[in-house]
Design a protein that fits this description.
With 349 residues, the protein is α+β, with helices and mostly antiparallel strands. The protein is built from twelve helices and nine strands. It is elongated, with a radius of gyration of 39 Å. Bound molecules: 3,4-dihydroxyphenylalanine.
Length: 349
């Protein structure tokens, strides 16, 4: 028996060295461990051995069987790994590529249009004080937007009496104040960023959204500069065919003030009759509101120590979320903030 076991061992070791492929090792398994193998034969021969030797040889054979089996398994798994690693035809895993969020890319696109006109991009502060967010912008003390229902106040120690409480800015207009306080005219600035309002979240409201503020201060600036600038922007951003409509409005920080509508691109002249009553974007009105604007109120210039007799300015502010919703026909603002990859990747470039 001892000799038989040694022979099996020797021949197995020789065979093992010859092994090149997965299939070869599968065959070795059959040859040494299969039902017709030498080891099986020896096992079935055990009952014919003298009683006192059966236990010993049974054990020896089991050890041999286990050694052979683990040697084969080891080589097999090595081969499997190697062969799989070398399969050059196997398609590579594509890494998931990140992309710029649609609100960021549209913000960038809008800023670029104004940069071409000579505007500088300057970001303001998200944490503001009452003076910059309201008072300097000519917003009276009893104005509803100052209410805690409309502005997030922060529980921080006041800087001084004039500044009032700290808050999360409710619009980007305080950027005008910060910049006019620091830089002398002439000025042409575009200032994008997040703004905050404690609105109940629904399809058209979010407690945080994006605005872009723009303003120009210089000598002999009048309303036609404002119209020309906004028309240039609208034609670059929407389409060369669009018209603008200025509707008189009121903002405390501009005088005169206007709200501006852009003609609906979907209801373009050609399709006007056909589409107007079922246009999903403008609901048949033919116009879409895109921003508020006006000539900077002299009190606002004076609050920043700019001589309002010598300098005039215009300003405008737009909601990025709303413009993107109009442009891409998105009907729920929450989609921008839920980070659903399937929604966001539609806009990846
Ligand atoms: N700050 C205004 C808002 O949040 C938007 C705005 C209107 C900004 C008119 C302006 C402007 O600069 O002139 O609703």
């Amino acid at each position: 028996m001892a000799q038989e076991i040694r022979k099996i061992k020797e021949s197995f070791e020789k065979d093992l060295e010859k092994g090149k492929s997965k299939d070869f090792f599968q065959e070795l398994k059959v040859k040494y461990l299969g039902r017709k193998s030498k080891i099986s034969e020896l096992f079935s021969n055990i009952p014919n051995l003298p009683k006192q030797e059966r236990g010993r040889w049974g054990k020896e054979l089991n050890i041999l069987k286990n050694q052979i089996s683990s040697a084969i398994e080891e080589r097999l798994s090595e081969k499997i790994q190697k062969e799989e690693r070398l399969d050059l035809t196997y398609p590579a895993k594509r890494p998931q590529k990140g992309s710029i969020h649609i609100l960021s890319s549209v913000t960038k696109e809008i800023c670029l249009i104004f940069k071409e006109l000579g505007f500088n991009v300057i970001e303001g502060n998200e944490v503001e004080d009452e003076w910059h967010n309201f008072s300097a912008l000519n917003i009276p003390l009893d104005h509803p937007s100052r209410d805690a229902f409309d502005t997030f106040y922060l529980d921080l120690a006041k800087k001084d009496k004039k500044s009032g409480n700290w808050l999360l800015r409710s619009h980007t207009s305080p950027s005008q104040i910060r910049i006019m306080q620091q830089v002398d005219p002439p000025l042409a600035v575009i200032s994008p960023g997040r703004v905050y309002r404690p609105d109940v979240v629904d399809a058209t409201h979010s407690f945080m959204f994006y605005q872009i503020e723009g303003f120009v201060v210089g000598q002999d600036i009048n309303f036609s500069y404002l119209k020309g600038t906004l028309l240039y922007f609208a034609r670059q951003f929407f389409s060369q065919e669009v018209q603008l409509r200025f509707r008189p409005h009121f903002f405390p920080f501009t005088e005169p003030s206007a709200e501006v509508d852009v003609s609906c691109v979907i209801c373009s002249k050609k399709n006007k009759q056909k589409n107007q009553d079922r246009c999903p974007v403008c609901k048949g009105k033919g116009w879409l509101e895109i921003l508020g604007c006006g000539m900077i109120h002299p009190d606002v210039l004076e609050a920043c120590n700019i001589d309002s007799k010598k300098y005039q300015g215009f300003a405008f502010g737009m909601g990025v979320d709303r413009i993107v919703m109009q442009k891409y026909q998105i009907n729920d603002i929450r989609l921008f903030y839920e980070n659903d990859i399937n929604f966001l990747k539609q806009f990846s470039i």
